[in-house]
Amino acid sequence: MSSKLFVATRKGLFRVDRKPSGWTIGEVSFLGDNVSMVLPDRRDGTLYAALSLGHFGVKLRRSRDVGETWEEITAPAYPPLPEGAEPEKTPDGREWPQRVELLWSLEAGREDQPGHLWCGTIPGGLFQSKDHGESWELVRSLWDHPTRKGWFGGGYDWPGIHSICVDRGGVTVGISCGGVWRSTDDGATWETRTKGMYAEYMPPERRDDPGIQDPHRLVACAAQPDALWTQHHNGLFRSTDGGKTWREVTSVKPSKFGFTMAVHPRDPETAWVVPAKKDEQRIPVDGKVVVARTRDGGASFTVLDKGLPQTNAFDLTYRHGLDVDGTGEVLAFGTTTGSLWISEDGGDSWQTISNHLPPVYAVRFGEV
Amino acid sequence: MPRVTFTQHIARHVPCPARDVEGRTVREALDAYFTVEPAVRGYVLDEQGVVRKHVVIFVDGAQATDRTRLGDAVGEGSVIYVMQALSGG
Known about the structure:
The complex is a heterodimer of chains A (368) and B (89). In chain A, strands 3-2-1-28 form a four-stranded antiparallel sheet, with no helix packed on it. In chain A, strands 4-5-6-7 form a four-stranded antiparallel sheet, with no helix packed on it. Chain A has a four-stranded antiparallel sheet with strand order 8-9-10-11. Chain A has one helix and 28 strands. Chain A has one helix at 140-143; strands at residues 4-9, 12-19, 22-29, 35-41, 46-53, 57-63, 71-73, 102-108, 117-122, 126-129, 137-138, 160-167, 170-176, 179-183, 191-192, 215-220, 228-232, 235-239, 247-249, 257-263, 271-276, 291-294, 302-304, 322-324, 331-334, 340-343, 351-354, 360-365. The longest helix of chain A is centred in the middle third of the chain and has 4 residues, at 140-143. Chain A has a domain at 111-362: Methylamine Dehydrogenase, Chain H. Chain B has a single domain (3-88), classed as Ubiquitin-like (UB roll). Helices cover 21% and strands 21% of the residues of chain B. Chain B has a five-stranded mixed sheet with strand order 2-1-5-3-4. Chain A binds chain B through residues 53-57, 59, 72, 75, 77-81, 98-100, and chain B through 9-10, 13-14, 39, 42-44, 46-50, 52, 54-55, 84-85, 88-89.
């Protein structure tokens, strides 16, 4: 069972420790600063934090002592435009920024690639480091893909890579709004993996277009990485063949809209979502915060509300706001209104850690 | 020599002592500064060498106008002051 939870918020990074007396907020790093993502790298115990400083841009920090001290390391950055080169434009003529605006996802590489990291960004660049974040390289094969200029922002002005699933056979990324992509050659080439998804927000003739799908969150079962789940803008989807085909899961309740998703690390049939009222409002259905869990691959869902507020609650859980630990029994989720809940029984019941944190962007269990 | 100084707001994140540097434009002076203090560069300029959206630069009390090429002239005794724009929150 994990004994540490890292919570990235609008105003700092909070470490929550499991003690005999219960889960307690401990070390706070970067108090006052916007922490967009955190990665506890289980391979070597290193902790990474992505910052988005309102004035001074995105930064990346690394800690070798569980957040006691931090060092600044190189943040992913786009290569300089050649002298005299025209900036890229979107199909409707807007200038596509050639600068990293947000470090939105950060993942460890494979077990046999120590120090390899992946970073997904807004405005849509995927970056790879092979040296613990000392240096980063833009994955040009995806950035230069001809369909990339058709991606567009979902929730932000520009498209962003929010999900990176690494397994022994390759890496799969989820992009809002740019679909799902898979590389099996360490990022040299990519193919779309969205067959079965659909986009109701597009004109009918673009409904099935792979490059404009909006997977809000993409997760893979660690023990069976071909088992993927996606909380998509238009509902819940499941794949059992590594994303080659997707099947819509319609039994989820109280709604099919949401941002976040988690899957059990060993049982691909078990997954959790935090539903919300779609799309124009993005608040809990009927003012009740609930988690929905399936244990049968999406055939049915149980709505879990024990310990969660059931009146006048307006907590929204962002894409990275839900996590499950390596046992599959301990879960945590944090919300835009600063609530943080933890369950130690697979979601059956929840304990309140705080209702007064800054807006929560990401929660991650980690034994670093 | 022009002098480059920074708001304390940046110093919260990265050491940025005031320094006298060579240069006849803001670009030349900042490049000279970043040669000595390379960690500061990314706080002031983005990866395309453009002044970050929510950073402003003053030369002798007047706001510099060229945020892309940083071509504003600086004199021998000029003070270049780099600070956060309130637009950044």
